[in-house]
Every structure is written in structure tokens, then in C-alpha cells.
User: Fold this.
Amino acid sequence: MHERMKYNYISDSDMSISSDDEGSSDDEIEQRKRGRKQMFDWKTEWLIFCMNARCGISQERIAPLFGAKSPTTIHNIIYAWANVLYRAFNALFPTPSRSDMLRAYPISVLCKFGHAKLFMLLDATEVFADIASLKTVNAILYSQYKHNSTLKFLVGCDPIGTTWSSAISNGYPGAIVKPAAWKSSRLTFYLVPRP
Assistant:
């Protein structure tokens, strides 16, 4: 059933595709172009993503609500939307240059500090994690400060309040202290003076 596609190159800018589709209906041709039919439309997938990300409802609980065959389907939807958002936010919030920063510097920061030398406000945040079944992993993830298993991230934002993707460090276990996370993060590139 696999049909051969013939490419007719007319010029560098114009390429047309013709195929041996004699006797095939338009629906069959369209189905072959798109691949398999998706189970949900994009609005339902977005709702599934939001229910998991914002409400904290587990994938096992969401699957029967939407008639999905397995939680794996829900996992794939959540993973795909997380990647779409990651790419979209990277395009929307690029890493600013120093000149971009100075052009958009808030007047309130200038009045408060009297200079425009702040490039990044840096802080650590912790995200709660499930308790690991292995005791060694649980000991690494356990945070004395939060009294729970956590992952720690260093997050930087500019004085305008924008956080770009390269201003978020990799995740560290909750037991790590901020100076150790700081020394091993890539955020030092932005803040350490360079010759």
C-alpha cells in the first residue's frame, strides 16, 4: 500500500509533489498525510495538561475521566505540551543583552538603588517530590528546611521580572545547600565579571 512519491523539481523555489493516487478517495489520502488520528483535540489536551500541572491530579486519575485507554496516553499528552510550552517561552523570552536590559530598566529600581548595575535577581526555589522507595535516594532528596523530599532550583530574573530559560539551573537534591548549588550552576556565567 506504500505509494512512491515523485518529486518534480521545476526551479529552486518551486517544488511540486505528485503521487500515484488513482482510485483513492480524498479522505484516504488526507489520512495518510496526517498519520494516525489523534484521540483528543488540542483544547482537550490543554485541559488535561492544566489539570495535571495546576491542579495536581495524577495521570492515573485523569485517564478514566477522559476515556483514555491508559495513563501512558495522558503522560504523552502532558510531555508534548510541556515541550511545546518550553519552545514557545524560549522564543517569547530570549536572554536579554545588557543594552536590552538598560533600555527596559524600571524607574523604581533606579530610584531605589541609584544605579543600573543589577542584571539578575537570584534565589533558590524548591519543588516537592514524591518520597523515594530507596533510602539512599530519599536521604539525598530530603530537605531539612522543608521537612520533605524536594528538588532545588536556582532561578534568576531580571529587574523587570522576566525569567528566561538559561536563568534556571538544573535541579539539585533538596539536601544541597545554596552555595554548593551556586558553584556548580551555569548561572555564574551571567554574574561573574569577565575580562
Notes: The chain has a mean pLDDT of 76.
